[in-house]
Amino acid sequence: MAEANTIQEGFLCPMCHKDLRSPNNLIVHFQDLHSEEQDILKSIKDIYDKYYLEYSDPQEPGPTRSHTDYFRAVRRERLDHRTTETNKLIIRLDRLLRFYGSDRKQQEQELVTWVEGYLVSRCPACTLPFNIARRQHHCRLCGSIMCNSCSYFLPYEIAQTIVAPVNNGSDREPATGKEGDNLRICNHCWNMLDCRRRVQIEQMKQPIICQLYSHLQKNKFHIQNTVDMYEKMYNSLVSGETTYLLQDLQSLRTTIADKAQMIDTLSKKIALLPVDPGMPKAAALQNNIRKATSVYIKDYLLTLSAPPTVQELEKIKRNRSIGVVEDDIPTPKPSIKKVTVTTGWSPANVTNETTVVEENDPLLEQMNIVRNYIDQARKAQRFEEVASLQENLQLLKKMYREQQKEEYGKK
Amino acid sequence: MASETTEAGKMANRAVAAQRPNGSTQGKICQFKLVLLGESAVGKSSLVLRFVKGQFHEYQESTIGAAFLTQTICLDDTTVKFEIWDTAGQERYHSLAPMYYRGAQAAIVVYDITNQDTFGRAKTWVKELQRQASPTIVIALAGNKQDLANKRMVEFEEAQTYADENGLLFMETSAKTAMNVNDIFLAIEV
Ligand SMILES: Nc1nc2c(ncn2[C@@H]2O[C@H](COP(=O)(O)OP(=O)(O)OP(=O)(O)O)[C@@H](O)[C@H]2O)c(=O)[nH]1
Ligand SMILES: [Mg+2]
Ligand SMILES: [Zn+2]
Ligand SMILES: [Zn+2]
Ligand SMILES: [Zn+2]
């Protein structure tokens, strides 16, 4: 019966009913396997020759109608629906992760209504009946019931990564799930979450070499700024200026050494990355990055002058105050400044209550404020700012001295 | 004694000759000193805070002395580092102002569009700058609190005319809604 109902169509072989999918295939097939039936072959050829004669000219297209808009509308609606459903699940998941303690089960049931067990006699996913061996389980996300093999244990750690983007920008505490814990959810809910998760992972995926390299470049950029500052500071110190302290120079040197170590490690890691045999140039690239970094460290960072000792510095200062060397010291040319692109910086506000002792003279008051700013800038290793603030402090001092002189003169 | 001299000299030369690996393509870097002046409570600190940190505080404390902030901006291949002195508007600190506008390449004089007196005070600041500050100083006039335009006491045209007559840049701004805030800082720089 069933066979009688099936209607076959296509380029069927009249002898064995095989579908050969194109006229040429059919003719070749016929010549190979059914060569004794010459007249049938001939009639097949005739049919197709005729067909080609009639239809080889392109046919005028008939009336057409675009369904794209309809398709888009349907698709958008489905996507929207799926997105909102997934979002709902993620919000619920986020709250589930915050439940803990003895009444967790009760909290879970308040979040979604659990379907009553007596209403469901078969697993809605696989239709097998529930019994002692196949027990009912509730999905913590949608409250529906399914059997063990149609549910999934979602580990807390994965749940956290799915939820994380929801937390972005809010100042709530991160969810507190114990490690190794997990949540039972139905396969349907898991599919929705897993889709979202895979999209997210895909978006964040970057070849490991790119990640390492951008890390390396960021550090190099930072070193560059620090080195510029180091040189400027060194020049200022050895010419006897008091804008910076010896400690400032030493702390920068430590920073540079740490960073150098870091980029060294990073470039080693890059060089040791396994190479895809399909990309022969990758190995060369990795080695070049490593080589360039070594050269950079050796030629550029290891050649930095060591900070002067305290005694040397004392000598320089003494000479300067006598005025012997002053004219001989070439004023260090300001090294080219390169500025890190950051968000702005400002010292924490100095308010009347805090650091500033109530001064009657606004000049003295401002001097205290600027001193406080200098401390803050120094702590933040904002040495360009230190220099500008020092300059201002000198100006304030000068002005204060002049003001004192004037008042003295009046008396 | 002589040894220090040569040591320092060497160092200075070294600094100049230092190779800059992969640094050769970096663009121009400008440092830009800027001062804000104006009557108390017109919103000077609020404007700077908006520009530097993107924040606004309904209860901004009145500045004492002068506050210092920096911001770095990239324009194409030019990096501009703003060093900003936000002076206190209270009369008591008036004597400090010259120390901050004298070294500045630009000044933003701020008034509050809902308060006619602050516009008068702004004009006085402009006069003082024209007389005492560097002749090349760029002056911008900011009519702040534009979001309160329904309580406006200073007409836009009045301020614009005044600004044109005195060769000032002029914009109405709002530290609260961020309107024209970046624009006025960047307009000055160009
Ligand atoms: N609605 C509105 N309020 C603003 C705006 N800018 C500042 N304010 C408010 O005005 C008040 C004073 O602002 P400040 O920035 O402290 O004024 P200031 O000019 O620095 O004052 P001094 O430091 O005393 O010179 C604060 O309460 C701000 O919240 C604005 O654009 N719109
Ligand atoms: Mg202020
Ligand atoms: Zn056949
Ligand atoms: Zn099942
Ligand atoms: Zn579910």
Automatic annotation (TrEMBL), chain A:
SUPFAM superfamilies: FYVE/PHD zinc finger, Rabenosyn-5 Rab-binding domain-like. Residues 11-39 form the C2H2-type domain. It holds the Pfam family Rbsn. PROSITE patterns: ZF_FYVE, ZINC_FINGER_C2H2_1, ZINC_FINGER_C2H2_2. Residues 117-194 form the FYVE-type domain. The keyword Zinc applies. Keywords: Metal-binding, Zinc, Zinc-finger. One of its GO terms (molecular function) is zinc ion binding. This is Rabenosyn-5. It comes from Rhamnusium bicolor.
TrEMBL record, chain B:
Gene3D superfamilies: P-loop containing nucleotide triphosphate hydrolases. It is an enzyme of class 3 (hydrolase). GO terms for molecular function: G protein activity; GTP binding. It is found in: Early endosome. Its EC number is 3.6.5.2. GO terms for cellular component: early endosome. Pfam families: Ras. Its main location: other. GO terms for biological process: protein transport. Keywords: Endosome, GTP-binding, Hydrolase, Lipoprotein, Nucleotide-binding, Prenylation, Protein transport, Transport. It catalyses: GTP + H2O = GDP + phosphate + H(+). Belongs to the small GTPase superfamily. Rab family. This is small monomeric GTPase.
